[in-house]
Prior knowledge:
Layout: H1 6-10, H2 27-37, H3 40-62, H4 65-82, H5 92-139
Amino acid sequence: MRRIPSSQILSGFAIVRELPSEDPMDDRELLDEFVKARSQGAFRELVERHLPVVYSAARRMVRDAHLAEEVAQSVFTTLAQKADSIRPPQVLGGWLYNTTRHLAMHAVRTEQRRREREQNCLRHAISRTRSRRFGNQRTS
């Protein structure tokens, strides 16, 4: 299984302020720091900690590396948007897993619908081509 580097997902996030690297902070402290100060360093640390698990879970659920990358990126985008709604005793790892599961299911459904639309368009195009071909042969 191919692992995506966290730098690939983090490329869209500008690092504005780095956290001091004295004592490693736990997830709750990092999340609080991100919520209070919009600390990109805290967010980066959360992504680096949890990206491998989020990506692996997404990969198992969607069974497609590229789609799993999109799901993982969406999970962390959602985290950035909803970080202030994650309150104790809720565990960040559980929140990330549930969010991954919901976004992966949505991605799979969306992908299935896209494929169905493409197949319907292809069937319609083939049908039109056949009717034109057979229609032209009858008139000749």
